[in-house]
Amino acid sequence: MTTETTRLQLRYLTDRAEIADLLDRYLRSLDEGRFDESWARAFHTEDVTAEMPIGTVRGRNALLDHVRRGMALFDRTVHLGTNAVIEIDGDRATARGAQLSTHVLADGSGGSGGSGRTGGSGGSRRTGGSGEVFVSAGHVDHELVRTADGWRIAASSLRIVWTQGTPPRLPAGLGPAD
């Protein structure tokens, strides 16, 4: 084995580990509830495109607002990602994995400005909520790019395969048709 081959293999393994870590930290961050500008910069490019069940957004600031509003509908969440297949091509990569998301609906999460998390509060967790549970599962596809600050998500698409429970009613301006 040549030194160059070893260097390329090490680079591939390092990139793969960094991408897997980024995706794991992203899912965990959804459960911690700290959504501010530094959160958005830590995971996404400035021109990110994200397709979610609650709509498609373009741009890091729009995504930050959308995630804040969407996650405020839930008192507590647990997001699990698994089976990620990561393919790397230089400074670009793709990752496809499964995602299971469990949500405890916030009191008043019926679209009337519920009392769910709003982010920026240091990730404090409440133990309230309506007690209703909504579970969704699907596949997520990511496009990633290497930046000066490390790997970042440039595009993502979450496709829900099944759900259980009643989802929260979405407030105006937050939904697939918006």
Summarize the structure.
The protein is an alpha+beta fold and 178 residues long.
- Note the gap between the termini: 55 Å
Q: How many beta-strand segments?
A: 6
Count of DSSP-assigned helices:
3
Low-confidence stretches: 111-125
The helicity comes to: 25-40%
From the alpha-carbon coordinates, what is the Rg to the nearest angstrom? Answer: 17 Å
The spatial strand order of the largest sheet comes to 2-1-6-5-4-3
Q: Could you give a short account of the major beta sheet? A: 6 strands, mixed
Mean pLDDT equals: 88
Helix and strand succession?
A: HHEEHEEEE
If you had to describe this structure to a student in words, what would you say it looks like?
By secondary structure, the protein is an alpha+beta fold. Helices cover 28% and strands 41% of the residues. A six-stranded mixed beta sheet has the order 2-1-6-5-4-3. Strand 3 (74-89) and strand 4 (92-105) form a beta hairpin. The termini are far apart.
